[in-house]
Amino acid sequence: MIQPYSSDHCIRNEREAGIALLADQLAIKFAERASKHDRDGSFPFDNFVDLRDSRYLKLTVPKKYGGEELSLYEMLLAQERIARGDGSTALAVGWHMALILSLRYTNRWSEDLFSRFSAEVVKDGAIINHFASELATGSPTRGGKPQTTAAKVVGGWSISGRKTYSTLSPIVEHFTISAGIEGNDEVGEFFVRKGPGFSLVETWDTLGMRATGSHDVILDNVFVPDEEVISLSGLEKQRQVTDDGSGSLMHIPACYIGIAYAARSFAIDFAKNYKPNSLPGPIADLPRIQQQIGEMEADLITARTLLYSIADRWDRDPDGRVALKPDLGLAKYIATNHALRIVDKAMRIVGATSLSRNLPLERMYRDVRAGLHNPPMDDVVLQNLAKRAIQE
């Protein structure tokens, strides 16, 4: 699973090598637990203890608040490697890492709120995610208005509703939510703390990514003070919120590339060591197996090269981030679809044994399917690329 830094063309310096090493060390532990959490559909609290203890959770926090201020490129290096150990843990913690990275550039939160929460991350290992999905609206990226409502009360807001796909819900003590404003068509965003009126319904029982804790969250007149309102009409203009092209969502393709890398490595090790008595050597010597390995390599190198080259462009050109959005989507499209092909080929190399639940391949096969349902969706990516081509 661990790749020597000298052979990884995506690692460019000693800082990045150190980030990769930290993630590799965590991934080894997570890989040992992945099967149990997958079978049980249980949330990997033990993994998050390790993430806290290693200070991983603060890596994208700004340096002025005590974090390491990882760039997008550096965050992807770390996230890809976490996914080599356990895809569910990588995808789940990726939302936390990405949200903090995004807040550094977009200015969506007030400085006071962001500094206070960052201090909690650095000191206590606080974790956060944004809960937006609802059963009636589907993916929030499609633009549906949330049925969760926020009503003005003395000193703040009273929020009621139900959120689905609430990844990290078993462990977060703070989260943000989108809600329709009672009495008009506006949608606001609120910083919510677990407390009176909050409840968790354990609905997450899925084919893949079974350990992300993406349960339903119910809010019943949960109070949010005025100072923890993130966005309402006029607030974003006051803060001069910046559109960063949603670059932080690149943690999603990094996760699926990591899973594919782990499957590819398992299959290669198997091919090098499996010696049926009908052959003079291992199956890795067979031309058809070498062709399948070569096809996996072609897909993996293509996906990684595209992902990291676009992340580097995003880091280096803040003014060009919005224009880069179709390319960011393309990186996700290539990564998830190539990951599907890589894991499929890995299972073909290993053969019927790959279906055994005693091996990790069948879990990886199920986990990579989830990538098709993470934003941006394939149809949106292709439409954006088509629109840009037509305009050009």
Automatic annotation (TrEMBL):
It comes from the Bacteria. SUPFAM superfamilies: Acyl-CoA dehydrogenase C-terminal domain-like, Acyl-CoA dehydrogenase NM domain-like. Residues 254-370 form the Acyl-CoA dehydrogenase/oxidase C-terminal domain. Residues 29-101 form the Acyl-CoA dehydrogenase/oxidase N-terminal domain. InterPro entries: Acyl-CoA_Oxase/DH_mid-dom, Acyl-CoA_Oxase/DH_mid-dom_sf, AcylCo_DH-like_C, AcylCo_DH/oxidase_C, AcylCoA_DH/ox_N, AcylCoA_DH/ox_N_sf, AcylCoA_DH/oxidase_NM_dom_sf. Its cofactor is FAD. The lineage of its organism: Bacteria, Bacillati, Bacillota, Bacilli, Bacillales. Keywords: FAD, Flavoprotein, Oxidoreductase. Belongs to the acyl-CoA dehydrogenase family. This is Acyl-CoA dehydrogenase. Residues 132-222 form the Acyl-CoA oxidase/dehydrogenase middle domain.
